[in-house]
Amino acid sequence: MAASRRLMKEHEEIRKCGMKNFCNIQVGLIVPYNPPYDKGAFRIEINFPAEYPFKPPKITFKTKIYHEKGQVCLPVISAENWKPATKSDQVIQPLIALVNDPQPEHPLRADLAEADSKKFCKNAEEFTKKYGEK
């Protein structure tokens, strides 16, 4: 409950400062219980375009991540699916799901795709230990 109040207060303060101060947010994303990414935390950056909320935010991992997707391509933030009424939790939840459920059989980065999912998970875990935020 305290976290919700804090976020609401910070959102109100950002809103009072004007939209230009709200365009670039760095967020810590921690995936604490699902391997292979549970050995570290990942900083992400959410960039809100000047046309927000009519155009979707862009999400970038600032911490290196071993993920076959290579970039954040969530259907909810694609230009064809974006709706101005979309809330931030509707963007964050699919992002967490993407990191928690890597799918090597549908890669965007063929160099990281591996037929052996156990090998992929082992490599991703080692990469997370090395590069993940402590």
Describe this structure in words.
This protein has a three-stranded antiparallel beta sheet, with no helix packed on it. It is globular, with a radius of gyration of 16 Å. By secondary structure, the protein is an alpha+beta fold. The chain has helices at 2-17, 88-100, 117-131; strands at 24-30, 41-47, 58-61. The two termini are 26 Å apart. The chain contains three helices and three strands. The protein has a single domain (11-131), classed as Ubiquitin Conjugating Enzyme, CATH 3.10.110.10.
TL;DR?
This protein is an alpha+beta fold. The chain has 3 helices and 3 strands. 15% of the residues are buried.
Question: How would you summarize the topology of this molecule?
Answer:
Elements: H1 2-17, E1 24-30, E2 41-47, E3 58-61, H2 88-100, H3 117-131
Antiparallel strand pairs: 1-2, 2-3
Enzyme class: transferase
Domain UBC core: 1-134
EC number: 2.3.2.23
